[in-house]
Amino acid sequence: MAVFGTLYGAAARHVLGVPLTLLSSVLVYSGALQFAMVAMLGAGAATLPLLLIAGVLNLRHLVLGAALRSRFESGPLRRAALAFFLVDETFGFAVAAGTAVEPAAVGRTTERTLLVAGLHLYVAWLVGTLVGVLGGGLTAVEGVAGAIFPVLFIGLASLAATRRSHVVRAGAAAALTAAVAVWLPGLRMLAPVIAGVLVALPGREP
After folding, report:
1. Which residues contact 81 (CB under 8 A, 6 or more apart)?
2. Segment holding 22, helix H or strand E
3. Do 58 and 33 meet the contact criterion of CB atoms below 8 Å apart?
4. What is the spatial distance between Cα 3 and Cα 145, in angstroms, rounded to a whole number?
5. Tell me: the pLDDT tens digits for 10-23?
6. DSSP string over 56-107
7. How far is CA 72 from CA 75, 104, 106, 120, in A?
8. CA distances (Å), origin 195, targets 99, 133, 169, 174
9. Cα–Cα distance measured from residue 200 to residue 194, given in angstroms and rounded to the nearest whole number
10. Structure pTM?
11. Calpha distance 44→99 (Å, rounded)
């Protein structure tokens, strides 16, 4: 997360300036939206397209929030506060943690995991943004980010690996990602997504 924050900070400082770049990470905390915003502002986009892309990119949070709602035990104010930390990674951590405990502890565990993971990733994103703004060159971190992106999706997919058969799937997913990265580098960003789906597909217990 810190690497992607650095990549964002290095790219956004030339478009938004230092104060707005830092403020956007503090208040928005949405990597996909922030990168899209920088790209569109750099291309001279007007306000309406920016609002539309913000709405479209964040539609998935309706699904993520609905999936977690049944697991929560707290009231609306606490749920609203936890919603700030709801990103793809924290959703995966929270669901996995809640699934691994007894039914009576699902709500407490899910909420705690979402909060703890969210705080850690939020701080990492802020630190990364600060490093990028203060001098992290865009070229210097592009290679690292490109290498970590597939690992991120494989890691999220591994959260679903609760059976021995999933180990085989995880190995196949890693092999697929590596093969595409070597022989089809133009598609390397798509491979981990497909790999994650393959790992998460339901199957029978061996």
Report:
1. none
2. helix 18-27
3. yes
4. 6
5. 888 888 888 888 89
6. HHTTHHHHHHHHHHTT--S-HHHHHHHHTT--HHHHHHHHHHHHTS-GGGHH
7. 8, 11, 8, 20
8. 22, 33, 8, 7
9. 10
10. 0.66
11. 45
- In the numeric block, which tokens belong to residue 161? 């690996």
Whether 33 and 53 have beta carbons less than 8 Å apart is answered as yes
Sequence-distant (≥ 6) Cβ neighbours of residue 97 within 8 angstroms: 109, 110, 112, 113
The whole-angstrom separation of Cα 7 and Cα 31 is 10
CA distance 76 to 91: 18
The one-letter amino acid code at 15 reads V
CA distance 52 to 35: 15
Work out the average pLDDT over 50-78: 84
Helices and strands, number each (H, E), in the chain: 11, 0
Query: CA–CA separation, 133 vs 162, rounded Å?
Result: 40
Contacts (Cβ under 8 Å, ≥6 apart) of 128: 1, 2, 3, 4, 5, 6, 7, 8, 9
Structure-token pair, residue 169? 């799937």
Question: What is the tens place of the pLDDT at every residue in 105-125?
Answer: 888 888 999 999 889 999 998
- Reading the block at residue 71, the tokens are 């697991």
Residue type, 203: G
pLDDT band at residue 163 under the 50/70/90 scheme: low
Say how many residues make up the chain.
Answer: 206
Q: Which amino acid is at 76?
A: P
